[in-house]
Every structure is written in C-alpha cells, then in structure tokens.
# Entry
Amino acid sequence: MMNKLLLTTVLSLGLALPAFAATPQAGETLAENQDYTYWLLDAIKSMDPQINTDVEGSGVLRALFEGLYNEDQTGGLVPGVATSYELSDDKTVYTFHLRDNAKWSNGDPVTAGDFVYAWKRLADPATASEYAWYMELMQVKNASKIIAGEAPVDDLGVTAPDDYTLQVTIEAPLPYFPKMLTHASVFPVNQKAIEQFGDKWTEAGNLVGNGAYVLKEHILGEKVVMEPNPLYWDNEHTILQKVTALTINDENAALTRYLAGELDRVQIPAGQYPRLKAEYPDQAISVPQSCSYIYMFNLDEAKGPEALKDVRVRKALSYGIDRDIIVNNILQGGQAPSYNWTHAATEGFKMPDIDYSHWTQEERTAKAKELLAEAGYGPDKPLELTLNYNTSEAHKKIAIAVQQFWKGIGVNLTLNNMEWKVHTDKMQNQDFEIARYAWCGDYNEASTYLDLFTSYSGHNNGKFFSEEYDKLMKDSKTAADPAPLYQEAEQILADEMPFAPIYQYTKVEMIKPDIKGAGLTNLMQNWYLKDMYRVAN
Amino acid sequence: MLSYIAKRLAIAVPTLLLLIIISFLLMHAAPGGPFTQERALPPQVLANLEAKYGLDQPLWRQMATYVWGIVSDFDFGPSFIYKDRTVNEIIAQGFPVTLTYGSLSFVLAVAVGVTLGVFAAIWHNSWLDYLAVGISIGAQVLPNFVMAPILVLVFTLWLRWLPGGGWEGGAWQYIVMPVIALSTSFMASIARITRSSMLEVLNSNHIRTARAKGLPERKVILRHALKPAMLPVISYLGPAFVTMITGSVVVDIYFSTGGIGKSFVDSALNRDYAVMMGVTILVGALTILFNLVVDILYAWIDPKIRY
# Structure
C-alpha cells in the first residue's frame, strides 16, 4: 500500500517510474463500470504471437501475453516477466532474470524455457513466420542461418541456464536491443497448449497465455472479448473487468457508433478532426505517432527515370511541395510538416539543421525553379513524371495537391492510382518513378527509420546507395552515443534527397474522457489493457 | 423429370471445374501475392512461407492439389491471411450469418414486392399504381451504401432504437437494419417485374374468358392471373436468392455482421487465394442449384413446359 501510494505521488509529479499496473492518480475515483470497448479496423488475423503481423493483433497480444519487458505510459521499459538483466562486457550476451511468480493461464509457471521455445519457433523455417526477420533484426546469434535453413533451430543464440534465467547471445552489440523486447513476436508461448491443440491452439478456450487477460470469445470479423486472468502475477492491479474489441471495417461507421455510445475509442477519419475537436473538445485528441510519409524516388540504375538521377531535380521536387497546405488543409489532424526521415519525437533523436526547413515556401519554390533550370528543364522542355499511389481518399488528395505544386515549378505529374497489392508489388520491383510510401517505427529509436536507406536494407525500394551513409549506420551500432551519427545520416538524406519527405504522423482519435492509462504519450502508441481504467465522472 | 434433374446435376460438375480453373488462373495472374506487403519480406522468409503454403509448386500442381483436397476431404485449404482459420471455418462462421439476413431479406422483398406489383397492375394508372411505382423506383435508385448510413443515422444516432452494428448470434435488433438495407433494391425490382408481367397477363385471352364466364375479379386474379404472371418473377428470384444469401459487401462492412459477403472483396484485395476460391465455389454451386430449382418450378407452374 505504502509502495503504491509512493508510486502514485511520483507519477503525479510526472516522473517516469516503473508503473507496474493501472495506477489511478491522486484524486481519481474509479468508476463503477469497468467495461471497455474499442475499435478494430480489421479482424484479428492471428492470435499466435509468432504468426501475428498486425498492429491490431499486437494490441490484443499485449493483453493475452507478456514479454520480458512492457512499456509505460511514455514508452519507457518496465519489467514484465523479466525483473532485471545484465549485459556482458563485450555487449553481446544479455542475461535476463525472470520473476518466479509468473504463471500461464493453465497454472504452469512461466519459465525461461518458454521464451527459448517461442524464439526458436519464430526463427524456425517450419513455422514460416512473416516476422522471422525480427530475430535477424535483433541480431540473435545464428538467426539468419536458421531462417535460411543452413543451421538447425537449436543453434539459435538463446538458452535457459535455469528456469528463471534467460541468456541471449547477439552477433554484434545493439544499443536498442532491450527496446525490441516489447514486440509481440518475442512473447513466450506455452508449448504444451500448442502441442495439444495444434493449429487450433489460439481459439478461445484453448488459448493459454501469460498476460493480464484471457480470451473469452473471438468471432472473426465481429468481436474479441477478454476478461482478467486471475492467475496473472499482478492481477490484483488489473482494473478493467471486461474488454471488447469490435471489428468495424468502415471508419465512418465506427465514428457513428462511437457517437451513439457503443464504443469508447475510435480513429477519426481524415479531415474530420477540426469539426469534432470543436464539438467534443474533451474527446478528440491528436498525439504524435511514430510513422513518416514520403514520396520515394526511383534511383535504380536500370529502371529509374534518367531525370531523377540528377540530385538537382530531386531537390527541386522536394522543395516544390508546400507541406503546410497538406497538413493544414488536407489532413487537418495536427500532423507535422516533414523535412527529414526520422519522426521528430523519436527518443534520443536530435534533428539536424536542415536548410530548407527554415525557408519560406516562396524561397523554396524559387530555388526549385532555379535548380530545374540548371538541370536543363524549363518551359520548352518540361519534366514529365509519374506518381504511383494506392487507393485511399487521403493519398489521392495529397497526390492532387502535389500535382498542382509541381505544375507551378514546371513539372507535369501523371497520377497513377492502383490497388494496394499492385502498388506494393510495383514498388518492390522498382517498377515506378515516384511512389507514395510510409514507414512506421518498430521501436522507439532512430535506427528503425535510418537503417532503411542502407544499401543492405531489404526495404530500400528506391535503391539509394551511399557508402558514407552505410558506414555511418554501421558505426552507430557500436557508438557510445549514436545521436550525432544519426544527425549526419539525416544530413546525407537531405543533401542527396532520395525521397521527398511530406509529413509525420499523429494518431487522431476520439476517446471517452473517463478512460485513463491509454498510453497516449507513448510515441509507439502501444497501450496495455492492464494499465487502463475508468474514472467516475 | 428425375432424369432431367440427374442430367443437370451431371453437367454441374464440369461447370464448377471450369469455374475453378478460370478463377484460379485469373487470381494468380493479378500482381502481388498473399505475402506481398509494404515491408518486403526477406527472400528467405518469403521462400519459407511459400513452401509452407505450397506456392512454390508449379501452378498446375497447386490447382490439382487444391481440387483433390476438395474432392477427397472437402477441404478448401487454409486462409493465407487469417492464419488461425481454415477456409471451411471462415465459411462455416460467415455463411450462416448472411444466410439468416439474406433469407429474411428475400422473404421481405418477395412479400412486399409482389404485393406492390400486383396492386399496381390491378389498379393500373390509378394513384395506387403511381405510388407503387414511385416507391419501387425510389428504392431502386437508393443504393444500399447510401441506405445503410442513413438507417444508422436515424435508428441508432437519433432515435437510439437499434444498435449500429454487430451480430451477437443473430439477435433481432442486429438483424433489422441489414435486412432493410439489403432487401429494398430487390423489392423494387420484384415489384416492377411483377407489375409489368401482371399487366400483360391481365390483357390475355384466358383472363378475358374467365371474366366473360362471370368469375368474381378476386378469383380471376388469384386463380388465373397470378400463377402465369409469376413466371418472369421466378426466373429473377433464383439468382437474386443466391445473391442475397451470400451476403452483401456493403451490409457486412457497414453493419459489421461478420458475414461472408465481405470475404469476396477482402480475399481478392488480400490475394487470399484459398478464401477467394472458397467463396467463388460456394456462389457458383448455389447459382447452379437455384437455376435448377427455378427450372423445376417453371415446369410445375406452366403446364406447357415439360422436360
């Protein structure tokens, strides 16, 4: 009790101390009703931590399972199944100490062996997980070889010296390794349940988890119902008693049902934020979210258009976009105009001084015209380019606006709208000139963005190559403080302009004012049901 | 008659097979695959996935395996996207939903549509006729993607009578709006077809004879006019019934019923090959079946038709 009181006081001072559970602040009274209903845009594709790939699925998995660490309200790490860890002197061996009171929902203790089983399962080619690459991203020893079928699964660099000690060996030092542990794909799973039920182990009734909630019902495309797990080690602090996630595929329908009182949290469709903010100032919110929206240029030797190989052209195109009009008049949800790649609010990231971000739009437009003229384009030789974007109202509006902006600097842009899978397929095969692209951070650290433009990244669809850039990113992995290297890397991107940055995301939502603990100040927008509660009005 | 039915069923098999082959090829011809995503999968991970789902096999073998699975075990394969479920499970969960609201919509559409059409024909060119035609044209031009939001606005947001969506095992409150939204345009078509067919029948010789021998008008209509007037309506109803019980994308999306209607569009966009094939075969088989039912009904209603 004393402990909790102290925690509450400290939290109310705004300091980030480990918040182990839902902790109402001083002066808050809990509501009688502790039911919570939230919105899912799409059905949950899988409730298997190693198979899931979706944001929606991860939200449910964070309730049904618990990894080594959790995130607090601001995204900081707090103990989950692990209570502490040590790092070897060469920074490649992590030793995690697990709590001895964590239990599976079938009563079994949660042991280090469960993590070893889950991690091997993720890397195992037989599992064929789409997130197997996460093991590679974490640099777990031998992960790449195992995925390629060149080494047996048992060679994975993860062992359990005893039931409550987990040892992970990574191939090279990785400063942000602990941050990657909150991802759902590295949650433990219960081998017994999986072997007993096979493919059916994720059904309600079969599913064995170690999270604060248990699965009561899952009707595909309709709803997911969860209730507190009485065996969860910290169940006494779980407050929400019944959580329902409703699948509503239309965001306007979801908003209507929110307004009718059927939901406690929904996303606001593009363009409706100002109206809702005026009408419901205590419910409409806009908070930063770790995603970045860009127009990628195809610099591929063979397939990229000749014009885009000239950096002056790329710069002119980027300068020519009036980002303020896009965020203020089209998106209208508090998004930030962007002149770089990494989301500005990323932890530890220091924004470099990017020259054109300080210019006025008139100055940018003038410079763009000048650069295009230098590159040999003008009224008698207009630049012709094509933009690919996937079907969506917002993408279309932005594309039309950019078409107009570029017309002003003498560029004729043809818009090419295509279905999502076709767009993606063309991008990944370099069958495009300019393509709409967005990237959301996997963890709250700049490398999740910056690694993408290395020559060895599998996501570098525009085929931008710079040896200097590669070197900076490689050095950043072992640097005591990678922040200056990240700044230099961003500077290279601004100088070479392999893409035109457009805006940085915000999460724009309606949330009932009596819902607390929803992790809105966490840039990754990861929330934990166990931290949430309803206060009395 | 029995041999006719047997013959028709025998033809159904190659028809379905052809449907499978064409859909299979068209689907695989579309760019991208089930595992194409914004974050390209590393080649090795993609290879493991394709091996697991048999997508690394030549197309003809994939098709043969697929057809054999259906024939030997009635197994339509796993969903490539909803990986916890098989296609059989997805259809077993979603089809009863659309079957429920689809059948109710069908009953409502037929009852109201036929009544409107018959009255409009009997009192041809009266205010009742104009009203019926007006209603049916109104219902026809109001597509369900407009109808659904209006219904939710009125009954959920303003009146607070009905929940805005969900299914809850088919409780009546959740069925009302999907049924109204789905049935209106069918109702309108049925009313128009009934009206024009009835008008034609009412001007035919056997009706004139019936009236001449002094039968009361009610008997003329019910006993002599209605049955032949129903023929064109019935040929419309066969395919309409299949369309209704396999659900509507708009209804499923807007009312979050969890029905199978949404799977058509979803599976195509997701390149969820197995689900796409499953729903295509379901609709194909039902269409063949109900076309046969229509033909049998024809023979029963019209003595001139004999097989």
About this structure: The first strand of chain A starts at residue 35 and ends at 40. Confidence is low (pLDDT under 50) at residues 1-19 of chain A.
